[in-house]
Automatic annotation (TrEMBL):
Domain HD-GYP: 175-371
Any one GO biological process: phosphorelay signal transduction system
Protein name, UniProt field: Response regulator
A Pfam family annotated for this UniProt entry: HD_5
Annotated Response regulatory domain residues: 6-120
GO molecular function: phosphoric diester hydrolase activity
Lineage start: Bacteria, Pseudomonadati, Pseudomonadota, Gammaproteobacteria, Alteromonadales
Amino acid sequence: MAAKPSMLLLDDEPEILNALKRLFRKDFVVDIFTDGQDALEALMSKEYAIIISDMRMPQLDGAAFLGQAKQVAPDASRLLLTGYADMESTVRAINEGEIFSYVSKPWDNTELKVLVKNALARYELIKKNDVLSGKLVAANTKLTEANAKLEERIAARTAALNKQTMRLKQSTLKQRKFFRQLLDMISVIIEDRAGHENGHSKRVAAHSKVLAEELGLSRAEAINIYLTGMLHEVGKVSISDELLATTEIERNPEQQQAFRSHAVEGANILSRLPSLREVATNIRHQYENWDGSGYPDNLKKEDIPLGSRILKVVSDYDYLLLGHKHAQKLSPDRAQFYLKEERGKQYDYKIVDKYLSLLERLPEIDELEADYCVATSKLEPGMIVSADVVTQKGSIMLTKDTELTQAAINKLKAYEKDNECFLTVFIY
C-alpha cells in the first residue's frame, strides 16, 4: 500500500485545524500548527505535498508564511484560507508565495476536497517531472541536438494537453459542482418534508453505493444506485402531514397503501428525465418484497430490480435505527437481527448477508462518504459524533462533532441501562 502524502495545516484557531484534520485524515498524514515559525521548522525537516495556511495569523501572517514556505518547499502546493476582507493580502500571497489557490471562509467541504485533489495532482506531476528531468539530463550528454528537438515537441505537446486538460477540468468541476448542489438541495427539501433527521438520504445513498460495489456492480450501476438512495423519498412531497407523522407499525392497511404510493409518485417525477429512468424504476419498486407480497406490482425475487432490493435493505435498516419503521428506535444489533429474520420474506438473502458483513467493516472503508450508527458497546474514545445524541425526552446528551472520551461513553451506557433503552449514536 502506497504511503499517504503529508499535509501541513497552519491556523491559530484549534477548531478550524481539527475540522480540516477530520476532513483530510483518511487521505493524508496531517500535521497541524498554530505558530508559523514552528511550521517553517517542520517544512525544513519533512516533505509536504500540501500546505494550507490561514491568512490572519499573529506575528507571521499567511502571505508572509507562504512566501517563506515557497523558498523552503517550492514543490509543495500552497493554499490560503482567507476572508473577503483579506483580498489585498491574498493578492500579496499570490505574488510572493505563488499559491496554488485560495479558499474563502466558510468553505464547502466538497469543493475544498476537489481543490486539494487538484493541488495534490499538481504536486505529483512536479515530482514525476523531476524524475523525468533527471533522466533527460543524463541522456542529454550524448543526445544534445536530438534531445533539444524532442524537448521542443514535448513542450508544444504539453502546452496543448495542459490547455485541453484545463478546459476539461473546468467543465467537469462546474458540472460536478452543479450536480452536487442540486442533489444536496433536493435532499434537504425531501428530508425537511419527510420530517427525518438530517443525513438519512445521504447515508442510505452512500451505504447503497458501497454495497453495490461489494456485490460486483459496475461504477455506472453503483452511481445509479447512489442516486436512487439520494432521491428515494422524492415522492413524499405528495403525502399528507398526518400520514408522514406515522410509523409503519402504526398505519392500517389503507394508510400503508396511501403512504407507499410516494414510491410510484417519485418514479413518475423522475422518469421524465431520460438519464434517471433506471433510478425511477428502482424507486418505484422500493416496497416490493422478496416473497411477492409487496407494492406496487407484487414482483417476486429476481424480478424485483437489483437497485430496489439494495435500497430496501439499506433504507429499512436506517429507518429501524431512527424509529421510523417501528414505534421505537432499535439498536444496531436489534436492527440487524430484524433484517436476518426477514430474509426470504421482505429481503433478498444475498443482499442482507452482504450488507451485514459490510456493516462490520464500515470503519475500515475509506470510500464511505457518510456516517454510520454504532452501538454504545462498540464506541471507542476518539470517535467523532456526526449528529446530536438525544435522550428519549429529546434532551441533548452530546452535540454534533463531539470527540468521544471514555467518560462520555460510560455516561451513554449508564443512561441506556437506567432507562432500559437504546441510544442512536452516529459517527463519522
